Amino acid sequence: IAAAVDIWARGPAALPPPRHPRTPVLPVEGERNVLITSALPYVNNVPHLGNIIGCVLSADTFARYCRLRNWNTLFVCGTDEYGTATETRALEEGLSPQELCDRYHAVHADVYAWFRISFDHFGRTTTPQQTRIAQDIFQRLLARGFLLQDTLEQLRCESCGRYLADRFVEGTCPFCGYAEARGDQCDKCGKLINAVELKNPQCKLCRGTPVVTPTQHLFLDLPKLEGRLEAWLERTWAAGDWTANARHITRTWLRDGLKPRCITRDLTWGTPVPLDGFRDKVGPTRRPCRALPAGLTCSGVALPQVFYVWFDAPIGYLSITANYTDQWERWWKNPQQ
């Protein structure tokens, strides 16, 4: 405050010269380097004020503040484009998932440009860089013994010849009896649901009745990381930067003990799992499925497994930066700066 008062009294001549950042913006030795992201907006709809106010606007305000302070600042964001929500919306609009992503990515970019959000780069997750980095992280986890394989019971539609992701199933909520509950959550009572728990389940693609079938999936072995995570959390909590709510939720997870977390899904739209036995896991259909538009054909085609969006999407922050600069690791693997 004293410095601000002093500069105010001395007038504009006392201000440091404005920074003229180079392109691309890269960390500079000896300076304060700030990397800012906001939550990646999902691509299957038109963004509304809640999206912008919820995360984008606050990040933009902070980015502008950092630049005014002459801090070396990079602000990146982009659309999150893989997963079942994209497939579902593509079905509704009669488009392939890629066509849907191309359409709504452009809409998002235009909206944020209209609001003058000061991104240095607004990218997307459906890129070769995303595939390369996500598969590299997967291979590193596999080589270090942090992955395991296990069987899940999952709903399979014999008519479509595919295992059904959570959002491709509707049925009656086992908790409140709501007749249009999704395979991941009930919109009436708000409880999370395992799709196989639904009563009277229906395939959203053909309205057929799916059957419970065992299927192999890959899991992140979180119990192996629990000890190291607890030690790291104690150090970071001591710094005082966590909100009370974030501390409470994290302590609850640790109190109950971490469980292995599934990182794969039987889908067509996502980053492929680069492991034999998961590249072409689902065999040909028994009869043609006419419910799918171009780009989502299932008849007679072997479907690969892809990474579950919760594993894949956070890597989008890295891949979007990598599409901005091939020196992205200087931002993401440089804790000293």
UniProtKB/TrEMBL annotation:
It comes from Regulus satrapa. Keywords: Aminoacyl-tRNA synthetase, ATP-binding, Cytoplasm, Ligase, Nucleotide-binding, Protein biosynthesis. It is an enzyme of class 6 (ligase). One of its GO terms (biological process) is methionyl-tRNA aminoacylation. Belongs to the class-I aminoacyl-tRNA synthetase family. SUPFAM superfamilies: Methionyl-tRNA synthetase (MetRS), Zn-domain, Nucleotidylyl transferase. This is Methionine--tRNA ligase, cytoplasmic. The keyword Nucleus does not apply. Pfam families: tRNA-synt_1g.
